[in-house]
Amino acid sequence: MFSLGYFLQQTMNGVILGCIYALLALGMTMVYGILRLINFAHGALITLGAFFTYFVLVRFGFPLVAVIFLVLGFGGLMGLVLDIVAYRKLRGGPEVALLITSLGFYTFIENFMKMVISPQPYAFKAPSYLTTIFKTSFLTFRTIDIFIIGASLIIMWCFHLFIKRTKMGIAMRATAENLEVASIMGIEINRVISVAFVLGSALAAFTGFMWGAKYGQISYDMGFLTGVKAFVAVVIGGVGSIPGAMVGGFVLGLAEILSIAFLPTSFSEYRDGIVFAILILVLLIKPSGIMGVKEEVRV
Amino acid sequence: MTKVKIPELWFLVGGLILLGGVFLADHLLNRYLIHILILMGIYSITTVSLNLTNGYTGLFSLGHAAFMAIGAYTSTLLAFPLQLREAYELPLLPPFLGGPEHSWSFFLAILAGGALASLSALLIGLPVLRLRGHYLSVASLGFMVIVTTFAKTLRGITRGSMGINAIPSYTNIYWTYLWLFISVYVIWRLVNSRFGRAMLAIREDETAAQALGIYPMKYKLLSFVVGAFFAGVAGGLYAHFTKAIRPLEFSFFLTFQIVTMLVVGGMGTTSGPIVGAVSLIALRYALKPVEEGLQVYGLIELVYAVLLIVIMLWRPEGIMGKRYSRIG
Predict the structure, then answer these.
(1) What residues in B contact A296, CB-CB < 8 Å?
(2) A14, A16, A248, A255: least buried by Cβ within 10 Å?
(3) How does pLDDT run across B244-283, given as a tens digit for each residue?
(4) What is the CATH number of the domain that holds B150?
(5) Which residues 6+ apart lie within 8 Å of A271 measured at CB?
(6) Are residues B135 and A269, on separate chains, in Cβ contact within 8 Å?
Protein backbone atom coordinates (compact mmCIF):
# COMPACT_ATOMS: atom_id res chain seq x y z
CA MET A 1 0.00 0.00 0.00
CA PHE A 2 2.78 2.41 0.89
CA SER A 3 4.33 2.33 -2.58
CA LEU A 4 6.21 5.13 -4.28
CA GLY A 5 3.12 6.01 -6.30
CA TYR A 6 1.03 6.30 -3.17
CA PHE A 7 3.64 8.52 -1.55
CA LEU A 8 3.87 10.77 -4.60
CA GLN A 9 0.10 10.98 -4.91
CA GLN A 10 -0.29 11.99 -1.26
CA THR A 11 2.59 14.44 -1.53
CA MET A 12 0.82 16.10 -4.42
CA ASN A 13 -2.39 16.31 -2.37
CA GLY A 14 -0.37 17.85 0.43
CA VAL A 15 1.23 20.38 -1.91
CA ILE A 16 -2.20 21.38 -3.24
CA LEU A 17 -3.61 21.86 0.25
CA GLY A 18 -0.37 23.66 1.05
CA CYS A 19 -0.94 26.05 -1.88
CA ILE A 20 -4.36 26.90 -0.48
CA TYR A 21 -3.02 27.46 3.03
CA ALA A 22 -0.08 29.46 1.71
CA LEU A 23 -2.29 31.88 -0.26
CA LEU A 24 -4.54 32.36 2.77
CA ALA A 25 -1.57 32.77 5.06
CA LEU A 26 -0.16 35.50 2.81
CA GLY A 27 -3.27 37.62 3.36
CA MET A 28 -3.36 36.90 7.05
CA THR A 29 0.28 37.66 7.71
CA MET A 30 0.02 40.94 5.79
CA VAL A 31 -2.85 42.13 7.96
CA TYR A 32 -1.34 40.72 11.15
CA GLY A 33 2.00 42.33 10.43
CA ILE A 34 0.45 45.79 10.22
CA LEU A 35 -2.48 45.72 12.63
CA ARG A 36 -1.68 42.75 14.93
CA LEU A 37 -5.13 41.49 13.99
CA ILE A 38 -5.95 37.79 13.66
CA ASN A 39 -8.53 38.36 10.99
CA PHE A 40 -11.22 35.72 11.55
CA ALA A 41 -13.30 37.33 8.79
CA HIS A 42 -10.64 36.04 6.38
CA GLY A 43 -12.28 32.63 6.64
CA ALA A 44 -15.66 34.05 5.70
CA LEU A 45 -14.17 35.35 2.46
CA ILE A 46 -13.25 31.79 1.49
CA THR A 47 -16.93 30.88 1.79
CA LEU A 48 -18.05 33.98 -0.06
CA GLY A 49 -15.54 33.38 -2.85
CA ALA A 50 -16.56 29.74 -3.17
CA PHE A 51 -20.26 30.56 -3.49
CA PHE A 52 -19.54 33.46 -5.82
CA THR A 53 -17.64 31.19 -8.20
CA TYR A 54 -20.31 28.53 -7.81
CA PHE A 55 -22.89 30.92 -9.21
CA VAL A 56 -20.68 32.54 -11.82
CA LEU A 57 -18.85 29.45 -13.08
CA VAL A 58 -21.22 26.55 -12.48
CA ARG A 59 -24.64 28.19 -12.76
CA PHE A 60 -24.00 30.87 -15.38
CA GLY A 61 -21.10 29.17 -17.12
CA PHE A 62 -18.73 32.13 -17.52
CA PRO A 63 -15.35 31.37 -19.11
CA LEU A 64 -12.55 30.55 -16.71
CA VAL A 65 -10.45 33.66 -17.36
CA ALA A 66 -13.41 35.93 -16.64
CA VAL A 67 -14.22 33.98 -13.49
CA ILE A 68 -10.68 34.35 -12.17
CA PHE A 69 -10.79 38.13 -12.52
CA LEU A 70 -14.37 38.38 -11.25
CA VAL A 71 -13.66 36.38 -8.11
CA LEU A 72 -10.47 38.33 -7.40
CA GLY A 73 -12.38 41.58 -7.87
CA PHE A 74 -15.29 40.40 -5.74
CA GLY A 75 -13.01 39.34 -2.89
CA GLY A 76 -11.09 42.60 -3.05
CA LEU A 77 -14.29 44.60 -2.98
CA MET A 78 -15.55 42.71 0.08
CA GLY A 79 -12.24 43.31 1.81
CA LEU A 80 -12.47 47.02 1.07
CA VAL A 81 -16.04 47.14 2.37
CA LEU A 82 -15.06 45.41 5.62
CA ASP A 83 -12.14 47.78 6.07
CA ILE A 84 -14.15 50.93 5.44
CA VAL A 85 -17.27 49.87 7.36
CA ALA A 86 -15.58 48.57 10.44
CA TYR A 87 -11.86 48.23 10.85
CA ARG A 88 -11.02 51.83 9.96
CA LYS A 89 -13.18 53.12 12.80
CA LEU A 90 -11.36 50.96 15.32
CA ARG A 91 -7.81 51.97 14.46
CA GLY A 92 -5.84 53.37 17.33
CA GLY A 93 -8.05 51.60 19.85
CA PRO A 94 -7.11 48.46 21.73
CA GLU A 95 -5.98 45.61 19.48
CA VAL A 96 -8.53 43.26 20.94
CA ALA A 97 -11.41 45.40 19.60
CA LEU A 98 -10.35 44.50 16.06
CA LEU A 99 -10.20 40.82 16.93
CA ILE A 100 -13.69 40.83 18.44
CA THR A 101 -15.13 42.74 15.50
CA SER A 102 -13.60 40.30 13.03
CA LEU A 103 -15.20 37.44 14.99
CA GLY A 104 -18.50 39.29 14.74
CA PHE A 105 -18.09 39.69 10.98
CA TYR A 106 -17.19 36.06 10.54
CA THR A 107 -20.33 34.92 12.37
CA PHE A 108 -22.44 37.47 10.57
CA ILE A 109 -21.32 36.31 7.12
CA GLU A 110 -21.56 32.64 8.03
CA ASN A 111 -25.13 32.93 9.28
CA PHE A 112 -26.11 35.25 6.48
CA MET A 113 -24.98 32.56 4.03
CA LYS A 114 -26.83 29.94 6.06
CA MET A 115 -30.05 31.95 5.90
CA VAL A 116 -29.82 33.16 2.32
CA ILE A 117 -28.18 30.23 0.53
CA SER A 118 -28.82 27.04 2.46
CA PRO A 119 -27.75 25.20 5.60
CA GLN A 120 -27.02 22.19 3.34
CA PRO A 121 -23.69 21.81 1.54
CA TYR A 122 -23.69 22.42 -2.22
CA ALA A 123 -22.07 20.13 -4.76
CA PHE A 124 -19.56 22.17 -6.75
CA LYS A 125 -19.52 20.60 -10.19
CA ALA A 126 -16.55 22.15 -11.95
CA PRO A 127 -16.73 22.32 -15.76
CA SER A 128 -15.28 19.37 -17.61
CA TYR A 129 -12.14 21.18 -18.79
CA LEU A 130 -11.11 21.44 -15.13
CA THR A 131 -11.76 17.80 -14.28
CA THR A 132 -10.03 15.99 -17.16
CA ILE A 133 -8.04 13.13 -15.68
CA PHE A 134 -4.43 12.42 -16.69
CA LYS A 135 -2.81 9.12 -15.78
CA THR A 136 0.91 8.46 -15.66
CA SER A 137 2.64 5.45 -14.16
CA PHE A 138 3.18 7.21 -10.82
CA LEU A 139 0.61 9.95 -10.59
CA THR A 140 -3.02 10.46 -11.44
CA PHE A 141 -4.11 14.06 -11.57
CA ARG A 142 -6.74 16.40 -12.97
CA THR A 143 -6.41 19.71 -14.77
CA ILE A 144 -7.56 21.51 -11.62
CA ASP A 145 -4.53 20.18 -9.70
CA ILE A 146 -2.18 21.68 -12.29
CA PHE A 147 -4.22 24.86 -12.30
CA ILE A 148 -4.04 25.25 -8.50
CA ILE A 149 -0.30 24.64 -8.30
CA GLY A 150 0.45 26.85 -11.32
CA ALA A 151 -1.83 29.70 -10.28
CA SER A 152 -0.50 29.63 -6.71
CA LEU A 153 3.10 29.78 -7.85
CA ILE A 154 2.34 32.67 -10.21
CA ILE A 155 0.44 34.54 -7.50
CA MET A 156 3.25 34.03 -5.00
CA TRP A 157 5.84 35.24 -7.50
CA CYS A 158 3.76 38.36 -8.30
CA PHE A 159 3.25 38.94 -4.62
CA HIS A 160 6.96 38.69 -3.96
CA LEU A 161 7.66 41.25 -6.69
CA PHE A 162 4.93 43.51 -5.36
CA ILE A 163 6.31 43.46 -1.83
CA LYS A 164 9.95 43.88 -2.84
CA ARG A 165 9.81 46.21 -5.86
CA THR A 166 6.77 48.45 -5.92
CA LYS A 167 6.37 51.62 -3.94
CA MET A 168 3.24 50.32 -2.25
CA GLY A 169 4.99 47.10 -1.27
CA ILE A 170 7.85 49.01 0.30
CA ALA A 171 5.37 51.26 2.11
CA MET A 172 3.63 48.15 3.39
CA ARG A 173 6.83 46.68 4.79
CA ALA A 174 7.65 49.99 6.41
CA THR A 175 4.21 50.15 8.00
CA ALA A 176 4.54 46.60 9.30
CA GLU A 177 7.91 47.52 10.79
CA ASN A 178 6.59 50.51 12.66
CA LEU A 179 3.23 52.08 12.01
CA GLU A 180 3.86 55.39 13.72
CA VAL A 181 7.24 56.05 12.20
CA ALA A 182 5.93 55.10 8.76
CA SER A 183 3.14 57.59 9.21
CA ILE A 184 5.62 60.31 10.17
CA MET A 185 7.61 59.48 7.03
CA GLY A 186 4.61 60.47 4.95
CA ILE A 187 3.16 57.05 4.20
CA GLU A 188 -0.60 57.12 3.97
CA ILE A 189 -1.36 54.44 6.54
CA ASN A 190 -5.04 54.10 5.73
CA ARG A 191 -4.31 53.42 2.09
CA VAL A 192 -1.65 50.85 2.92
CA ILE A 193 -4.01 49.02 5.26
CA SER A 194 -6.83 49.10 2.73
CA VAL A 195 -4.52 47.65 0.09
CA ALA A 196 -3.50 44.89 2.52
CA PHE A 197 -7.14 44.03 3.18
CA VAL A 198 -8.08 44.15 -0.50
CA LEU A 199 -5.18 41.93 -1.59
CA GLY A 200 -5.67 39.47 1.26
CA SER A 201 -9.40 39.23 0.69
CA ALA A 202 -9.00 38.79 -3.06
CA LEU A 203 -6.60 35.90 -2.42
CA ALA A 204 -8.99 34.39 0.15
CA ALA A 205 -11.91 34.51 -2.30
CA PHE A 206 -9.68 32.93 -4.94
CA THR A 207 -8.79 30.06 -2.61
CA GLY A 208 -12.53 29.57 -2.08
CA PHE A 209 -12.76 28.94 -5.81
CA MET A 210 -9.83 26.51 -5.68
CA TRP A 211 -11.32 24.70 -2.69
CA GLY A 212 -14.68 24.25 -4.40
CA ALA A 213 -13.18 23.09 -7.70
CA LYS A 214 -10.75 20.71 -6.01
CA TYR A 215 -12.87 19.14 -3.26
CA GLY A 216 -16.25 19.40 -4.98
CA GLN A 217 -18.28 20.51 -1.99
CA ILE A 218 -18.94 23.92 -0.49
CA SER A 219 -20.96 24.87 2.56
CA TYR A 220 -21.75 27.95 4.60
CA ASP A 221 -19.29 26.99 7.36
CA MET A 222 -16.39 25.79 5.18
CA GLY A 223 -14.25 28.85 5.81
CA PHE A 224 -13.94 28.80 9.55
CA LEU A 225 -11.49 26.01 10.25
CA THR A 226 -9.64 26.68 6.99
CA GLY A 227 -9.14 30.31 8.00
CA VAL A 228 -7.95 29.40 11.48
CA LYS A 229 -5.61 26.78 10.02
CA ALA A 230 -4.20 29.47 7.74
CA PHE A 231 -3.25 31.41 10.84
CA VAL A 232 -1.62 28.25 12.19
CA ALA A 233 0.40 28.24 8.97
CA VAL A 234 1.39 31.85 9.65
CA VAL A 235 2.62 30.90 13.13
CA ILE A 236 4.53 27.87 11.82
CA GLY A 237 6.26 29.97 9.18
CA GLY A 238 6.99 32.83 11.53
CA VAL A 239 4.62 35.68 12.25
CA GLY A 240 5.19 38.76 10.12
CA SER A 241 7.38 37.05 7.55
CA ILE A 242 5.98 36.85 4.01
CA PRO A 243 8.20 33.99 2.78
CA GLY A 244 7.51 32.36 6.15
CA ALA A 245 3.78 32.39 5.48
CA MET A 246 4.29 30.54 2.20
CA VAL A 247 6.66 28.00 3.74
CA GLY A 248 4.30 27.57 6.71
CA GLY A 249 1.39 26.93 4.37
CA PHE A 250 3.24 24.18 2.53
CA VAL A 251 4.56 22.62 5.74
CA LEU A 252 1.08 22.55 7.25
CA GLY A 253 -0.61 21.20 4.12
CA LEU A 254 1.97 18.43 3.74
CA ALA A 255 1.89 17.60 7.44
CA GLU A 256 -1.89 17.39 7.46
CA ILE A 257 -2.18 15.16 4.39
CA LEU A 258 0.85 12.94 5.05
CA SER A 259 -0.07 12.36 8.68
CA ILE A 260 -3.48 11.02 7.73
CA ALA A 261 -2.07 9.17 4.73
CA PHE A 262 0.49 7.19 6.69
CA LEU A 263 -1.23 6.73 10.02
CA PRO A 264 -3.79 3.92 10.34
CA THR A 265 -7.20 4.87 8.91
CA SER A 266 -8.78 5.19 12.35
CA PHE A 267 -6.63 8.28 12.86
CA SER A 268 -8.22 10.20 10.00
CA GLU A 269 -10.80 11.57 12.41
CA TYR A 270 -7.97 13.29 14.26
CA ARG A 271 -7.10 15.38 11.18
CA ASP A 272 -8.10 18.78 12.61
CA GLY A 273 -6.73 17.83 16.02
CA ILE A 274 -3.34 17.06 14.45
CA VAL A 275 -3.13 20.55 12.91
CA PHE A 276 -3.65 22.25 16.25
CA ALA A 277 -1.35 19.83 18.02
CA ILE A 278 1.32 20.98 15.54
CA LEU A 279 0.50 24.60 16.47
CA ILE A 280 0.95 23.92 20.17
CA LEU A 281 4.21 22.05 19.48
CA VAL A 282 5.56 24.97 17.45
CA LEU A 283 4.58 27.44 20.16
CA LEU A 284 6.31 25.21 22.70
CA ILE A 285 9.55 24.59 20.80
CA LYS A 286 10.10 27.61 18.53
CA PRO A 287 7.48 30.31 19.03
CA SER A 288 9.09 32.56 16.42
CA GLY A 289 8.41 29.97 13.72
CA ILE A 290 10.63 28.76 10.90
CA MET A 291 11.53 32.13 9.37
CA GLY A 292 10.31 34.62 11.95
CA VAL A 293 12.41 37.08 13.82
CA LYS A 294 12.10 37.64 17.52
CA GLU A 295 10.04 40.71 18.22
CA GLU A 296 11.57 43.48 20.24
CA VAL A 297 9.26 45.00 22.82
CA ARG A 298 9.33 48.47 24.24
CA VAL A 299 6.99 50.10 26.69
CA MET B 1 -9.68 47.28 56.96
CA THR B 2 -13.24 48.59 56.99
CA LYS B 3 -12.89 49.09 53.26
CA VAL B 4 -12.60 45.35 52.85
CA LYS B 5 -15.22 44.37 55.37
CA ILE B 6 -18.16 46.41 54.09
CA PRO B 7 -18.37 44.82 50.62
CA GLU B 8 -18.15 41.41 52.28
CA LEU B 9 -21.24 42.34 54.25
CA TRP B 10 -22.93 43.39 51.04
CA PHE B 11 -22.14 40.04 49.53
CA LEU B 12 -23.81 38.33 52.51
CA VAL B 13 -26.91 40.54 52.19
CA GLY B 14 -26.93 40.06 48.41
CA GLY B 15 -26.62 36.30 48.86
CA LEU B 16 -29.59 36.24 51.24
CA ILE B 17 -31.70 38.36 48.86
CA LEU B 18 -30.67 36.03 46.00
CA LEU B 19 -31.71 33.01 48.08
CA GLY B 20 -35.06 34.62 48.80
CA GLY B 21 -35.54 35.52 45.16
CA VAL B 22 -34.65 32.02 44.00
CA PHE B 23 -37.00 30.53 46.62
CA LEU B 24 -39.85 32.78 45.44
CA ALA B 25 -39.11 32.02 41.78
CA ASP B 26 -39.06 28.31 42.51
CA HIS B 27 -42.52 28.47 44.06
CA LEU B 28 -44.26 31.10 41.97
CA LEU B 29 -43.03 30.76 38.37
CA ASN B 30 -43.97 28.07 35.88
CA ARG B 31 -41.51 25.48 34.63
CA TYR B 32 -40.75 27.26 31.36
CA LEU B 33 -39.67 30.44 33.13
CA ILE B 34 -37.61 28.48 35.64
CA HIS B 35 -35.96 26.71 32.70
CA ILE B 36 -34.97 30.09 31.28
CA LEU B 37 -33.78 31.32 34.68
CA ILE B 38 -31.51 28.29 35.11
CA LEU B 39 -30.07 28.80 31.63
CA MET B 40 -29.43 32.45 32.47
CA GLY B 41 -27.65 31.35 35.64
CA ILE B 42 -25.44 28.83 33.84
CA TYR B 43 -24.49 31.27 31.09
CA SER B 44 -23.80 33.92 33.74
CA ILE B 45 -21.29 31.58 35.40
CA THR B 46 -19.47 31.00 32.12
CA THR B 47 -19.48 34.69 31.24
CA VAL B 48 -18.28 35.73 34.69
CA SER B 49 -15.44 33.23 34.43
CA LEU B 50 -14.53 34.32 30.90
CA ASN B 51 -14.41 37.88 32.19
CA LEU B 52 -11.47 36.97 34.42
CA THR B 53 -9.21 36.13 31.47
CA ASN B 54 -10.71 38.22 28.69
CA GLY B 55 -11.81 41.22 30.71
CA TYR B 56 -9.41 41.67 33.60
CA THR B 57 -6.18 40.07 32.42
CA GLY B 58 -6.55 41.07 28.78
CA LEU B 59 -5.97 37.56 27.40
CA PHE B 60 -8.45 36.86 24.67
CA SER B 61 -9.36 33.20 25.12
CA LEU B 62 -11.76 31.52 22.71
CA GLY B 63 -11.61 28.08 24.27
CA HIS B 64 -14.30 28.41 26.86
CA ALA B 65 -16.52 25.80 25.19
CA ALA B 66 -13.66 23.31 25.55
CA PHE B 67 -13.51 23.76 29.31
CA MET B 68 -17.28 23.48 29.49
CA ALA B 69 -17.07 20.25 27.50
CA ILE B 70 -14.44 18.84 29.85
CA GLY B 71 -16.53 19.74 32.89
CA ALA B 72 -19.69 18.37 31.31
CA TYR B 73 -18.22 15.03 30.30
CA THR B 74 -16.26 14.53 33.51
CA SER B 75 -19.13 15.23 35.86
CA THR B 76 -21.58 13.20 33.76
CA LEU B 77 -19.32 10.17 33.68
CA LEU B 78 -18.61 10.36 37.40
CA ALA B 79 -22.18 10.90 38.55
CA PHE B 80 -24.02 8.67 36.08
CA PRO B 81 -26.34 6.25 37.96
CA LEU B 82 -24.88 2.76 38.33
CA GLN B 83 -27.95 0.83 37.21
CA LEU B 84 -28.16 2.76 33.91
CA ARG B 85 -24.49 2.51 32.95
CA GLU B 86 -24.79 -0.84 31.21
CA ALA B 87 -27.88 0.16 29.26
CA TYR B 88 -26.14 3.25 27.92
CA GLU B 89 -22.81 1.50 27.27
CA LEU B 90 -20.93 3.78 29.61
CA PRO B 91 -17.82 2.42 31.32
CA LEU B 92 -17.72 1.64 35.02
CA LEU B 93 -15.37 3.72 37.10
CA PRO B 94 -11.81 2.42 37.42
CA PRO B 95 -10.53 1.51 40.92
CA PHE B 96 -8.72 4.81 41.57
CA LEU B 97 -11.98 6.71 41.09
CA GLY B 98 -13.95 4.52 43.47
CA GLY B 99 -14.30 1.25 41.59
CA PRO B 100 -17.14 -0.23 39.57
CA GLU B 101 -19.60 -0.21 42.48
CA HIS B 102 -19.34 3.49 42.94
CA SER B 103 -20.98 6.59 41.53
CA TRP B 104 -20.04 10.07 42.70
CA SER B 105 -22.35 12.56 44.31
CA PHE B 106 -23.43 15.47 42.13
CA PHE B 107 -21.53 18.15 44.04
CA LEU B 108 -18.25 16.22 44.01
CA ALA B 109 -18.65 15.33 40.36
CA ILE B 110 -19.11 18.99 39.46
CA LEU B 111 -16.02 19.89 41.50
CA ALA B 112 -14.03 17.18 39.72
CA GLY B 113 -15.20 18.52 36.36
CA GLY B 114 -14.00 21.99 37.28
CA ALA B 115 -10.70 20.63 38.55
CA LEU B 116 -10.01 18.69 35.36
CA ALA B 117 -10.87 21.76 33.29
CA SER B 118 -8.34 23.80 35.30
CA LEU B 119 -5.73 21.10 34.90
CA SER B 120 -6.16 21.17 31.14
CA ALA B 121 -6.01 24.96 31.23
CA LEU B 122 -2.69 24.66 33.04
CA LEU B 123 -1.32 22.29 30.40
CA ILE B 124 -2.46 24.43 27.48
CA GLY B 125 -1.55 27.69 29.20
CA LEU B 126 2.05 26.78 29.97
CA PRO B 127 3.27 26.86 26.36
CA VAL B 128 0.86 29.46 25.01
CA LEU B 129 0.82 32.14 27.70
CA ARG B 130 4.57 32.71 27.46
CA LEU B 131 3.88 34.60 24.24
CA ARG B 132 2.60 38.09 23.77
CA GLY B 133 -0.20 39.02 21.42
CA HIS B 134 -3.32 37.10 20.69
CA TYR B 135 -1.79 33.69 20.14
CA LEU B 136 -4.00 32.51 22.95
CA SER B 137 -7.15 33.10 20.89
CA VAL B 138 -6.01 30.78 18.14
CA ALA B 139 -4.38 28.24 20.42
CA SER B 140 -7.44 28.05 22.66
CA LEU B 141 -9.67 27.72 19.63
CA GLY B 142 -7.41 24.90 18.49
CA PHE B 143 -7.68 23.37 21.93
CA MET B 144 -11.47 23.41 21.50
CA VAL B 145 -11.11 21.52 18.22
CA ILE B 146 -8.82 18.99 19.90
CA VAL B 147 -11.26 18.47 22.79
CA THR B 148 -14.28 17.97 20.51
CA THR B 149 -12.20 15.62 18.34
CA PHE B 150 -11.45 13.49 21.39
CA ALA B 151 -15.07 13.63 22.50
CA LYS B 152 -15.99 12.26 19.07
CA THR B 153 -13.33 9.58 18.82
CA LEU B 154 -13.00 8.12 22.33
CA ARG B 155 -16.16 6.11 21.77
CA GLY B 156 -15.55 3.72 24.68
CA ILE B 157 -15.78 6.62 27.12
CA THR B 158 -17.91 9.31 25.53
CA ARG B 159 -20.07 7.28 23.11
CA GLY B 160 -18.69 9.37 20.24
CA SER B 161 -20.87 11.77 18.26
CA MET B 162 -24.03 10.10 19.59
CA GLY B 163 -23.35 11.79 22.88
CA ILE B 164 -24.61 10.77 26.29
CA ASN B 165 -28.34 10.77 26.94
CA ALA B 166 -30.51 10.24 29.99
CA ILE B 167 -28.24 12.22 32.29
CA PRO B 168 -30.10 12.62 35.59
CA SER B 169 -31.33 16.20 35.93
CA TYR B 170 -29.60 17.08 39.18
CA THR B 171 -29.22 20.75 38.29
CA ASN B 172 -31.93 22.88 39.80
CA ILE B 173 -32.28 26.58 40.32
CA TYR B 174 -30.65 26.43 43.80
CA TRP B 175 -27.48 24.68 42.62
CA THR B 176 -27.19 27.04 39.66
CA TYR B 177 -27.47 30.21 41.67
CA LEU B 178 -25.30 28.84 44.47
CA TRP B 179 -22.52 28.30 41.94
CA LEU B 180 -23.16 31.67 40.34
CA PHE B 181 -22.84 33.28 43.77
CA ILE B 182 -19.62 31.39 44.47
CA SER B 183 -18.10 32.28 41.11
CA VAL B 184 -18.98 35.97 41.40
CA TYR B 185 -17.60 36.09 44.93
CA VAL B 186 -14.36 34.25 44.16
CA ILE B 187 -13.64 36.29 41.06
CA TRP B 188 -14.56 39.56 42.73
CA ARG B 189 -12.31 38.68 45.67
CA LEU B 190 -9.49 37.72 43.34
CA VAL B 191 -9.78 40.86 41.24
CA ASN B 192 -9.84 43.13 44.28
CA SER B 193 -6.66 41.70 45.69
CA ARG B 194 -2.96 41.95 45.00
CA PHE B 195 -3.43 39.33 42.27
CA GLY B 196 -6.20 41.30 40.58
CA ARG B 197 -4.20 44.51 40.55
CA ALA B 198 -1.33 42.61 38.97
CA MET B 199 -3.71 41.24 36.34
CA LEU B 200 -5.02 44.70 35.52
CA ALA B 201 -1.45 45.96 35.24
CA ILE B 202 -0.65 43.16 32.77
CA ARG B 203 -3.73 44.05 30.74
CA GLU B 204 -2.73 47.69 30.51
CA ASP B 205 0.91 47.11 29.65
CA GLU B 206 2.71 43.86 30.07
CA THR B 207 6.22 45.24 29.72
CA ALA B 208 5.59 48.05 32.20
CA ALA B 209 4.07 45.55 34.64
CA GLN B 210 7.15 43.39 34.27
CA ALA B 211 9.36 46.37 35.00
CA LEU B 212 7.42 46.88 38.23
CA GLY B 213 8.29 43.39 39.39
CA ILE B 214 5.21 41.50 38.29
CA TYR B 215 5.94 38.09 36.78
CA PRO B 216 3.25 38.01 34.05
CA MET B 217 3.25 34.25 33.48
CA LYS B 218 2.12 33.52 37.03
CA TYR B 219 -0.87 35.86 36.94
CA LYS B 220 -1.88 35.01 33.39
CA LEU B 221 -1.84 31.33 34.26
CA LEU B 222 -3.76 31.94 37.48
CA SER B 223 -6.54 33.80 35.74
CA PHE B 224 -6.71 31.24 32.94
CA VAL B 225 -6.88 28.32 35.39
CA VAL B 226 -9.49 29.90 37.67
CA GLY B 227 -11.59 30.90 34.66
CA ALA B 228 -11.40 27.36 33.32
CA PHE B 229 -12.49 25.95 36.69
CA PHE B 230 -15.77 27.84 36.68
CA ALA B 231 -16.28 27.08 32.99
CA GLY B 232 -15.93 23.40 33.88
CA VAL B 233 -18.43 23.83 36.71
CA ALA B 234 -20.87 25.53 34.37
CA GLY B 235 -20.38 22.71 31.86
CA GLY B 236 -21.25 20.17 34.54
CA LEU B 237 -24.36 22.10 35.51
CA TYR B 238 -25.30 22.40 31.85
CA ALA B 239 -24.98 18.65 31.26
CA HIS B 240 -27.20 17.82 34.24
CA PHE B 241 -29.68 20.44 33.08
CA THR B 242 -30.16 19.58 29.39
CA LYS B 243 -29.86 15.85 30.22
CA ALA B 244 -28.02 15.13 26.97
CA ILE B 245 -24.60 16.19 25.71
CA ARG B 246 -23.00 15.74 22.31
CA PRO B 247 -19.54 16.84 21.13
CA LEU B 248 -21.19 19.06 18.54
CA GLU B 249 -22.73 21.33 21.15
CA PHE B 250 -19.39 22.51 22.50
CA SER B 251 -18.47 24.20 19.28
CA PHE B 252 -17.24 27.60 18.22
CA PHE B 253 -20.77 28.96 18.39
CA LEU B 254 -21.03 28.28 22.13
CA THR B 255 -17.80 30.22 22.67
CA PHE B 256 -19.03 32.95 20.40
CA GLN B 257 -22.24 33.31 22.42
CA ILE B 258 -20.30 33.64 25.66
CA VAL B 259 -17.89 36.16 24.14
CA THR B 260 -20.82 38.18 22.81
CA MET B 261 -22.50 38.17 26.21
CA LEU B 262 -19.31 39.39 27.82
CA VAL B 263 -18.63 42.11 25.27
CA VAL B 264 -22.23 43.33 25.26
CA GLY B 265 -22.36 43.40 29.05
CA GLY B 266 -18.97 45.02 29.40
CA MET B 267 -15.54 43.43 29.73
CA GLY B 268 -13.73 44.02 32.98
CA THR B 269 -16.80 44.98 35.00
CA THR B 270 -18.38 43.04 37.87
CA SER B 271 -22.01 43.25 36.78
CA GLY B 272 -21.43 43.37 33.01
CA PRO B 273 -21.14 39.63 32.37
CA ILE B 274 -24.35 38.88 34.26
CA VAL B 275 -26.24 41.69 32.52
CA GLY B 276 -24.94 40.47 29.16
CA ALA B 277 -25.81 36.82 29.79
CA VAL B 278 -29.30 37.56 31.12
CA SER B 279 -30.22 40.01 28.38
CA LEU B 280 -28.90 37.86 25.53
CA ILE B 281 -30.67 34.73 26.79
CA ALA B 282 -33.84 36.80 27.08
CA LEU B 283 -33.28 38.02 23.52
CA ARG B 284 -32.76 34.46 22.32
CA TYR B 285 -36.06 33.30 23.82
CA ALA B 286 -37.81 36.36 22.39
CA LEU B 287 -36.44 35.63 18.90
CA LYS B 288 -37.04 31.88 19.00
CA PRO B 289 -40.73 32.09 17.91
CA VAL B 290 -39.71 34.43 15.07
CA GLU B 291 -36.97 32.10 13.87
CA GLU B 292 -39.25 29.07 13.96
CA GLY B 293 -42.24 30.93 12.52
CA LEU B 294 -40.33 32.33 9.53
CA GLN B 295 -38.16 29.22 9.14
CA VAL B 296 -35.03 31.33 8.96
CA TYR B 297 -32.50 29.28 10.89
CA GLY B 298 -29.43 31.23 11.85
CA LEU B 299 -31.39 34.38 12.69
CA ILE B 300 -30.45 34.33 16.39
CA GLU B 301 -26.75 33.93 15.57
CA LEU B 302 -27.05 36.71 13.00
CA VAL B 303 -28.62 39.05 15.54
CA TYR B 304 -25.91 38.18 18.07
CA ALA B 305 -23.21 38.96 15.49
CA VAL B 306 -24.83 42.28 14.56
CA LEU B 307 -25.12 43.17 18.24
CA LEU B 308 -21.45 42.34 18.78
CA ILE B 309 -20.34 44.49 15.84
CA VAL B 310 -22.60 47.39 16.83
CA ILE B 311 -21.36 47.32 20.41
CA MET B 312 -17.72 47.19 19.29
CA LEU B 313 -18.14 50.11 16.92
CA TRP B 314 -20.23 52.44 19.02
CA ARG B 315 -19.96 51.39 22.64
CA PRO B 316 -16.86 49.22 23.01
CA GLU B 317 -17.02 49.34 26.81
CA GLY B 318 -20.36 47.49 26.82
CA ILE B 319 -23.62 48.24 28.59
CA MET B 320 -22.18 48.38 32.09
CA GLY B 321 -18.70 49.65 31.29
CA LYS B 322 -17.42 53.12 31.96
CA ARG B 323 -15.78 55.01 29.16
CA TYR B 324 -12.23 55.80 30.02
CA SER B 325 -9.60 57.34 27.86
CA ARG B 326 -6.30 55.63 27.33
CA ILE B 327 -3.16 57.63 27.56
CA GLY B 328 -0.77 57.40 24.64
Answers:
(1) none
(2) A255
(3) 888 888 888 899 999 999 999 988 888 889 999 999 999 9
(4) 1.10.3470
(5) A256, A259, A260
(6) no
